[in-house]
Fold each of these.
Amino acid sequence: MNQNKNVAVVGATGAVGVEMLETLAKRNFPVKSLRLLASSRSAGKPMTYRGETIKVEELTKDSFKGIDIALFSAGASRSREFAQFAVDAGAVVVDNSSAFRMDPSVPLIVPEVNPEDIKKHHGVIANPNCTTIIMLVAIKPLYDLSPIKRIVVSTYQSASGAGAKGMEELEQQTAAVLAGQPAVPQFFPHPYAFNLFSHNTAIQANGYNEEELKMVYETRKIMHDDAIRVCPTCVRVPVLRSHSEAITIEQVRKVSVEEARAALAKAPGVKIVDDREKNLFPMPCNSNGQYDVLVGRIREDLSCDNGLALFVCGDQLLKGAALNAVQIAELL
């Protein structure tokens, strides 16, 4: 990067937007000017970036004049409505929503996995779903050892995946239950404190919910491998931040645990946490605020000939969202 960029953050007041600002600062992204955009309800709100107070502006179709890179994290409907205005104004859009992920003309990028695809963009680059990102950072080094034929993955997804409102509801319900009161659902469809439930996206005709199907189709697109079979089960758990995933893979050839560990140890974006003697493995509380995906429980899958099993944790707000978007901007 040889010049500073004029950057806009759309959805700046949301949980991911706040993390985007902090990530831009921590990674010394070359920001020339910063424009913070949100709904009319947030217009005028002061936010701080590197000690400077910047007032949030209302998002409109005219918000992108002079902007080089626009980081969107305001939901799919906002992205569909406003992304083209940003592109028409000359900006490159890095979109964190599901709006463009499966558009064949839009690259879907995990920088540790398929950075070369960024060259194919036509003004919009999509950030994958958080669960997909965390999984693929962990299994790409193993895929490079031997192609993966099948993935069975169960996710344990935190409240942060639903944004600030989801996190607030978990905190409020937890306090209520500890005070002897019931956990009354308002944002989520079920009680969340001291409970878990199937991910609250719509169930499709094949029995999978939308979150699970994102993992299926996004994995194939990012890995450029339509033959990968993916069977996901996505569950909300009462954890405030960071997603966990139990992953089992079946490969073309047998990859030993030692070979897998060596590949993961040198892989970008991966930190091995796999102490069998201390029974210490990835935990959400240890991945909070971390850029790396924590990988552990690395072991042979006893149910098939060429299988491995592992357990991973990743900060949904960072690697699952804000950090991945900023890394894409760095690639630009």
Amino acid sequence: MSRILIISPNWIGDAVMAQPLLQRLRAAHPDAPIDVLAPPPVAPVWRQMREVDEVIQTTFRHGALQLRERWRLARVLHRRGYAAAYVLPNTLKYALIPWLAGIRRRVGYKGESRYGLINVMHHDDVPPRPMVPFYAALAQAPGAPLQSAPRPALQVTPEQVQAACAKAGVAPDRPLVVFAPGAEFGSAKRWPPEHFAALARHIVARFPLAQVALLGSPKDRPACDEVVAGVAGSAAAPAVLNLAGQTSLAEAIALIGHSAAVVSNDSGLLHVASSLDRPVVAIYGPTDPDHAPPFSTVAAALSLRLDCSPCRQRECPLGHHDCMRKLDAELVWRTLQPMLPATVAA
């Protein structure tokens, strides 16, 4: 049976937003196994997709060509008999792999000098499309009008939730609100920690049984420590759990799946929450909320839409960070409170 290979992007959010492509491929090829080639930090996301048969982890260093390692991987892939490969990163390095593996149909966007390596070539619109339809378009012929793309959908099991709660010290019978204060792109995308702390105080004052979990990578720990410091001495302090760097990505996904709501910067965990259809408040400053918006049934994208945004810079080029600083906790609380189900107050 012919297999399909997906070559994953390097970012969590992009992997989530590529899931509708898999939905389209599964509908068109119901009996074809779909495998994903992914870097270790992103692999757990693909394992939560029902369309994926196997995740193959790469060992490439960031930015390195590692031609010998790519050749060895290509030989392994060749023996698996793939009929088609969908190359989601726009780099030359990842387009080399299916070409070296002798996969006949190699689908992707033009990217960087990939003529010949990609033989079913797509071209992006100007201005660029939002990410979900951008990836979903690869399931059809280049240039064909894109029908409405399905919504990304991950899944978690009760067993995964139970194990993640036990490890993280989350009481499974108390409502959980997740904060994601980090952002890989840079400090400009981060809502100030003192605003997250003020929001936590609002939540616990209104819903005394609520727990607030701070999720993120080890690099997000300092920002989360500031949130904890901001609630010190208040009634919210015992309810705020700093789990940044303390959970695996798979465990974080399970906790998000268990949550009553998620408040997040424009980050990978935002898109994880959307794909699990959790109520989401997404906070945008230097990035465009229309390019990668939340897609939960209940969701709000908050942006002050200042004249200087979206600047798409890692740090505020004007030095004031007003796009985030002036988006205060009161506004986010007014948006979040109606999303919280009645069970949170129980």
